[in-house]
Amino acid sequence: MKVLKFGGTSVGSAQNIKRVIDILQKEALTSPIVCVVSAIGGITDKLLQAGELAKQKNEEYLTVFDTIKSIHFKAIEELAPNAESILTDVEAKFNDLKQLLNGIYLINELSPKTSDKLVSFGELLSSFIIAKTMEKMGINAVLKNSQELIITNSNFTKAEVNYEVTNKNITDYFNKANQQITILPGFVSKSQLGETTTLGRGGSDFTAAIIAAALTVEQLEIWTDVSGMYTTNPKLVKQAYPIANLSYQEAMELSHFGAKVLYPPTVQPVLDLAIPIHIKNTLQPEATGTIISNQNNGSNLTVKGISHIDNVALLTLEGSGMVGIPGFSKRLFETIANEKINIIFITQASSEHSICFGIDESNAEQAEQAINSTFENEISLHKINPITVEKGLSIIALIGDNMKSHQGISGKLFSTLGKNNINVRAIAQGASEKNISAVINASDVKKALNSVHERFFEVNTKQLNVFITGIGNVGEKLIDQIQQQHSFLKKNLKLDVKIVGMANSRKMIFNPKGIDLNNWAAQFHHADPSSIEGFYQKVIELNLRNSIFVDITANHDVSKVYENYLKQSVAVVACNKIACSGSYAEYKNLQDLSLKYNAPFLYETNVGAGLPIINTLNNLVASGDKVISIQAVLSGSLNFVFNNFSDKKNFHDTVKQAQFEGYTEPDPRIDLSGIDVARKILILARENGVPMEIEDIVNESFLTKANLESDSVDDFYETLIADEAHFQKLYASAKANNCQLKYVAEYKNGKAKVGLQEVPEGHPFYNLKGKDNIVMFYTQRYPEQPLIVKGAGAGADVTASGLFADIIRIGNK
Ligand code: ADP
Ligand code: ASP
Ligand code: MG
């Protein structure tokens, strides 16, 4: 014999009921079947809603009643059209229901006892409709009301079963019965006094387990709307997958900690008899599902699942008067027990100075009052403080029988939560070590489940959620590169890089699942207006794991927000130089925040675009090398200008050409004045550990006073024409000395300078072409032959690839 239970969704529509009948017919070929059914999906909630409305004298209850009625009649119409006998009986049941609701309306009261009577209609109706449909189809099936079998105490809404009487009723009935299929309503029962009781929300699973145990059947099947018990709630974590095998203890822990797919008490009756529970999907009967049993299934997974409970309140009792005094916790927990409040979670600091426990939020006020009254005396003597209550919390729990024999699991859990800026309010680990629980803010649950799931179950891939601001030339290239490399990175580096947000100064778009990169430009067209603050708010609101903010602007206000991102543990990648070349205090603050909040802050592209200059310097310093000096050509624009300027081409035209070809900033003075180069050498000096300011950098400009004092770009160009002779003189001197003009940045002994130099033949700078950059690091390990980094130091493609490299570096951390 087998017991099968079908949940709310499984019997939620005529189409699904037909699937159930199919499954029953197939299974009945090999053994007699006991079939327990839930109410049609959502009906229990609707019945309670109608009851509440009626109690509040709100006539809307009639509308809810009508909805409940029409859901049932629609199902009957599709399953057994024109079946008069079914329709008449169901109509009679609805008359009873209406009368009951009317009674609640009239007396303004909905007691637990009446509530049980009310919700029992759900299962009584569904089981009746299914059994009668099968009968009409000529299938050998009978309906048996489980209220005649399952006897409980009068603890309404969650009654306790009297197993002695119940087991006898069940065996007596089934020993006599000889039909192949018996249909029973789940959830409902009767007290010894004959009153309707129920077994608690989700209790149809329990009904099935009680019958399975009483009859010692070979298997209990729980048919639901998912393909088993998943590694975590599949509604919250897309990557969750069904667990093939679980022990009874693991299943119990998972369900106690919120895996709704199995009602927690279900395991108890079948555990001692070692009856396996098979969780199956009605909508996908061919899927393997989950088997819960004693069998060791050879699975070597240490952590089997992650579950969570919402609506948790944390209560803390604290005070010096508690230390070393026996009986304190006894009184505390007795108080809670007397209030019939269930404790989900307890921790006590070993100093005994405080006890902290978690309960359902709805019981918080009741518990608070009761505890404060129990300890009234101690509170008035200031031996302890009044109890503190915090709401809006959730618990997440890692579950697995084998966790006890593995070190480092809690370390992994808490480091994952920490990296994602999820604040842990309290921790508990049972001595059995089958469960490690952490109390966190309810708003962090989705992020916590996703990141912890990724860490424990998706060892293979790590998702990076990228938010780009500044979609110009470089931004577009970066998007292209990420799109092109997506499958490579996933396959080879196990990184799943998703662009979740994009903004320019006008518009912004977001998609938490990742923006479709095949047509992002079109989406951008219809996007919302953007703002720096609005973009930040959205990143924080989405609260995704491994979030990375990428700044591809040259905007001062954008750089001001890095601080906020880092404080939320969002990594920052910037090609914007402003933050790192502003005041030292600002630069240092960002470095400190990055460390404190475990959020990388990378800006390789600040110097030499995609060239690995900062990274090389960081590695030298980190590995204990000492920098003696740095010599570098760091400006693609100045290089271009001095490579093209000669006695045959005037300086004004050369600069114009550089600007035209995109080698200079829109205001060429920023390049020609040497400011940009000064900022770069400043960053390198700081990376070398020297707290310098931009004013400390000696900048010997080759420009004339008139050039430097020009009021506008046009003005500036005018002065270049006027001062042509000055520039020709610079050229002539270099030529006479057989040198090339290069704009050089130097750092030595804590001092830095930038300026135009005549570089002799044979010097590594002499032949530098086009927009190339070069940096020579003279260090203790490279005293004579410097470590040289050289290559294209400007351009959208290489800058984008530098940003991309920073993103990947964060992924590999
Ligand atoms: P039924 O009506 O069949 O009893 P339930 O709604 O009670 O179904 O339980 C199934 C639901 O449990 C799933 O649809 C899923 O949303 C939720 N759930 C939560 N955690 C888990 C988990 N770890 N594995 C599977 N389902 C889960
Ligand atoms: N119908 C009841 C509920 O919704 C019992 C169940 O479905 O298991 O809680
Ligand atoms: Mg259920």
Automatic annotation (TrEMBL):
An annotated GO BP: lysine biosynthetic process via diaminopimelate
Subunit annotation: Homotetramer.
Needed co-factor(s): a metal cation
Lineage, top ranks: Bacteria, Pseudomonadati, Bacteroidota, Flavobacteriia, Flavobacteriales
Keyword Cell membrane: no
The keyword Amino-acid biosynthesis is assigned to this record: yes
Gene Ontology MF term list: aspartate kinase activity; ATP binding; homoserine dehydrogenase activity; metal ion binding; NADP binding
Residue stretches making up the ACT domain: 398-471
UniProt protein name: Aspartate kinase
Pathway the protein acts in: Amino-acid biosynthesis; L-threonine biosynthesis; L-threonine from L-aspartate: step 1/5; Amino-acid biosynthesis; L-lysine biosynthesis via DAP pathway; (S)-tetrahydrodipicolinate from L-aspartate: step 1/4; Amino-acid biosynthesis; L-methionine biosynthesis via de novo pathway; L-homoserine from L-aspartate: step 1/3; Amino-acid biosynthesis; L-methionine biosynthesis via de novo pathway; L-homoserine from L-aspartate: step 3/3
Keywords: Amino-acid biosynthesis, ATP-binding, Kinase, Lysine biosynthesis, Metal-binding, Methionine biosynthesis, Multifunctional enzyme, NAD, NADP, Nucleotide-binding, Oxidoreductase, Sodium, Threonine biosynthesis, Transferase
